[in-house]
């Protein structure tokens, strides 16, 4: 019986079995940012412990970064404090840092892959639940809390329990106007927001094999929204091609040796899975969330469910409808939006911006809609500008901002106000997520966000793509 | 470095009253909204636990003075889903919660809670309902949770609890703060690191 990629990577990185029964797992790449690391460094200082492998940690700043005026000190004193703490910690402990002043700053899950830090066969941890994104490269990548950030800094290891693997195979090709975002929203709707607890999700099948790295990252990114701490795709030629020439990727003969090893880390054809789920990619349509967790989505041609629907969790549907102030049975298309946000570690890479720009090109954002594009990194922003995407967005009435997390979680000045409804390419529609405790989020693909911005309401992007 | 003495950190028994919090999928954004993460310490998080829910929902249990001294939080399914912010269990712990009993927990939340010595155990749905009903009927209902026996006593009954082995062992041995344990055999760590193709430049 063959092994899965998860199993191979797990075995390779196992230091020992701890007396508690957990695995001591070595972490190949540790990424840190300003929100979940300061307390960890303080714990190290208090204990007089140093960073065991400083060269295996890499820092960036993303959550609190203002996307308009980035001059220091930041207008927000608390944000400035967090920024300064990260700078001090990186300097004191000898950690590389994509500071705001460099051209490598951006959302941690965008810059890791972009810089070639993220590679197949690695274990990757970061104090952020969307670390699952990096699994797109065939890495075992997962989010941790601050005390575990401390553990990784101190020992480059974690105490962790092993996971089962569920293979999710997506057959046939996706239709035009249908994206990785729609596939993952469909998967979460089908398996539920807690369906993945205890599992790593392995995504495969023809539709996934055909996806670009950007799309695979979107899929893996939202694994955690389905309860799976880890999501991954087996590395293949698409992966290797993406990595070639990246600043931290191996080069020359080392790249060839790396490629052979990376290939060997993929799941064996006869690998045993704990569970297998199959989906037909051609049956998926653009999806939109109508509720307060990412599992509450429907196809754009469908209606908002009712608490009494067969198979529905009536209490959860009722609570969501009450918060959203939506009517059961109403079509989701036509839902008025106030804000359109293209951004986040889920969907703010170059190809996402291209798709959104394709929709808004030559169009105007509806008069009542506030629309903004926040690139995932400085590099994405620069590349988009080279293609003139910023001009397309600005001509349509979008704001073109600096890189960061921005309105995905509103720790910077970008936020919803009051009851605003936001068409968002991000990953969480939790109550209050976008900065207003009563604000409402509709998750969808960047192309669907662009379509909603222009129409002023939720609309099927397939009618707008030539 | 040798393992720090963990004997004084052993967690077996949590005795106190319970705070019943109904609902599935209560995410960490609700436990502690992101704006309270704008800080470089965990200080003061306790008073902001469920800040927005307390404002928007009348009778939220975290706003009810009858539960102000409760130390056992009782929840339903998938508690602590969403963000990996340790601020969530930190806020609960600083609010006086020493243990959580629920139908299920998100994995990251469970890991974070364990690393700060907040004991989480699962119970069957009818048992969770029994505990919630007891605490709702009388907020002063005493409860005793035993990590070792994996049980909780309340209102004349002893109910079975479940915990992953690693979590239970970490609490019972006081090694839930894993740093010392992970540094115990650093030679083994170095050996694994040296055997990684990517660490050796391929
Ligand atoms: S973009 Fe959103 S989800 Fe991604 S790391 Fe930033 S805050 Fe977290």
List the domain count of chain B as a whole number. 1
Bound molecules: iron/sulfur cluster
Integer-rounded radius of gyration of chain B: 19 Å
Biggest sheet statistics of chain B: 4 strands, antiparallel
Q: Please name the fourth-level CATH homologous superfamily of the largest domain in chain A.
A: Aconitase, domain 3
CATH C-level of the largest domain in chain A: Alpha Beta
- pLDDT under 50 segments of chain A (min length 5)? none
CATH architecture label name of chain B: Alpha-Beta Barrel
Count of discrete alpha- or pi-helical segments spanning 4 or more residues of chain B: 8
Task: Give me the count of strands of chain B.
Answer: 8
Please characterize this protein's 3D structure.
The complex is a heterodimer of chains A (466) and B (202). Chain A folds into three domains: 10-160, Aconitase, domain 3; 164-283, Aconitase, Domain 2 (3-Layer(aba) Sandwich), CATH 3.40.1060.10; 287-463, 2-Layer Sandwich (Aconitase, domain 3), CATH 3.30.499. In chain A, helix 6 (180-191) packs parallel to helix 8 (213-221). A five-stranded parallel β-sheet of chain A has the order 5-4-3-6-7, sandwiched between helices. Chain A is built from 15 helices and 19 strands. With 466 residues, chain A is an alpha/beta fold. Chain B has 202 residues and is α/β, with parallel strands linked by helices. Chain B has helices at residues 28-31, 51-56, 87-94, 107-115, 125-137, 165-173, 179-183, 186-194; strands at residues 13-16, 18-21, 72-75, 99-102, 119-122, 143-146, 151-154, 157-160. In chain B, the strands form two sheets. A four-stranded antiparallel β-sheet of chain B has the order 1-6-7-8, with helices on one face. Chain B has a four-stranded parallel β-sheet with strand order 2-3-4-5. In chain B, strand 4 (99-102), helix 4 (107-115) and strand 5 (119-122) form a beta-alpha-beta unit. At the A-B interface, strand 1, helix 2, helix 3, helix 5 and strand 8 of A face helix 2, helix 4, helix 6, helix 7 and helix 8 of B. Bound molecules: iron/sulfur cluster. Residues 62-63, 107, 109, 128, 130, 344-345, 405, 408-409, 426-427 of chain A line the site of iron/sulfur cluster. Iron/sulfur cluster (SF4) is lined by residues 62-63, 107, 109, 128, 130, 344-345, 405, 408-409, 426-427 of chain A.
């Amino acid at each position: 019986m063959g092994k899965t990629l998860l199993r191979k990577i797990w075995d390779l990185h196992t230091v020992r079995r701890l007396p508690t029964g957990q695995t001591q797992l070595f972490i190949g790449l540790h990424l840190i940012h300003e929100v979940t690391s300061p307390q960890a460094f303080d714990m190290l200082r208090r204990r007089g412990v140093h960073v065991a492998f400083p060269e295996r940690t890499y820092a960036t700043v993303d959550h609190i970064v203002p996307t308009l005026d980035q001059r220091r000190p930041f207008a927000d004193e608390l944000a400035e404090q967090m920024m300064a703490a990260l700078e001090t910690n990186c300097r004191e402990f000898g950690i590389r840092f994509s500071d705001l002043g460099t051209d490598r700053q951006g959302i941690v899950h965008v810059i890791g892959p972009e810089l070639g830090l993220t590679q197949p066969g690695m274990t990757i941890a970061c104090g952020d639940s969307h670390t699952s994104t990096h699994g797109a490269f065939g890495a075992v990548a997962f989010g941790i809390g601050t005390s575990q950030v401390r553990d990784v800094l101190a020992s480059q290891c974690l105490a962790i329990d092993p996971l089962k693997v569920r293979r999710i195979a997506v057959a046939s090709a996706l239709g035009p106007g249908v994206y990785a975002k729609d596939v993952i929203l469909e998967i979460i709707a089908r398996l539920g927001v807690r369906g993945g607890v205890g599992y790593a999700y392995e995504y495969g099948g023809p539709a996934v094999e055909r996806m670009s790295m950007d799309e695979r990252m979107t899929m893996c990114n939202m694994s955690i929204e389905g309860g799976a701490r880890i999501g991954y795709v087996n590395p293949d030629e698409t992966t290797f091609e993406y990595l070639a020439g990246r600043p931290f990727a191996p080069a020359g003969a080392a790249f060839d040796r790396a490629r052979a090893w990376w290939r060997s880390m993929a799941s064996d054809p006869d690998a045993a899975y704990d569970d297998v789920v199959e989906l037909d990619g051609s049956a998926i349509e653009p999806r939109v969330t109508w509720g307060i967790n990412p599992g509450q989505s429907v196809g754009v041609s469908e209606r908002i469910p009712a608490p009494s629907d067969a198979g529905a969790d009536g209490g959860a549907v009722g609570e969501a409808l009450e918060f959203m102030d939506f009517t059961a049975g109403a079509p989701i298309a036509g839902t008025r939006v106030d804000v359109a946000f293209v951004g986040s570690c889920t969907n703010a890479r170059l190809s996402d911006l291209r798709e959104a720009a394709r929709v808004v090109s030559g169009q105007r954002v509806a008069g009542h809609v506030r629309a903004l594009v926040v690139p995932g990194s400085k590099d994405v922003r620069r590349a988009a500008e080279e293609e003139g995407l910023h001009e397309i967005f600005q001509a349509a009435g979008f704001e073109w901002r600096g890189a960061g997390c921005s309105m995905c979680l509103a720790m910077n000045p970008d936020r919803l106000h009051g009851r605003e409804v936001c068409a968002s390419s991000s990953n969480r529609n939790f109550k209050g997520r976008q900065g207003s405790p009563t604000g409402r989020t509709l998750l969808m693909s960047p192309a669907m966000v662009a379509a909603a911005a222009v129409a002023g309401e939720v609309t099927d992007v397939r009618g707008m793509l030539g | 470095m040798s393992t720090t003495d963990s004997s004084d950190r052993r967690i077996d028994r949590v005795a106190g009253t319970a705070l019943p919090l109904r609902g599935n999928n209560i995410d960490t954004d609700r436990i502690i909204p992101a704006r309270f993460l704008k800080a470089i310490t965990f200080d003061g998080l306790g008073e902001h636990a469920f800040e927005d829910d307390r404002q928007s929902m009348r009778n939220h249990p975290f706003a009810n003075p009858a539960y102000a001294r409760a130390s056992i939080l009782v929840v339903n399914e998938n508690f602590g889903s969403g963000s990996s912010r340790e601020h969530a269990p930190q806020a609960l712990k600083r609010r006086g919660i020493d243990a959580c009993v629920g139908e299920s927990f998100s994995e990251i939340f469970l890991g974070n809670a364990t690393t700060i010595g907040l004991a989480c155990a699962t119970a069957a749905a009818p048992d969770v309902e029994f505990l919630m009903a007891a605490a709702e009927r009388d907020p002063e209902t005493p409860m005793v949770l035993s990590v070792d026996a994996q049980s909780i006593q309340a209102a004349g009954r002893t109910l079975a609890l479940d915990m992953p082995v690693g979590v239970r062992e970490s609490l019972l041995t006081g090694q839930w703060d894993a740093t010392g344990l992970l540094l115990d055999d650093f030679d083994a760590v170095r050996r694994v690191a040296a055997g990684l193709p990517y660490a050796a430049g391929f």
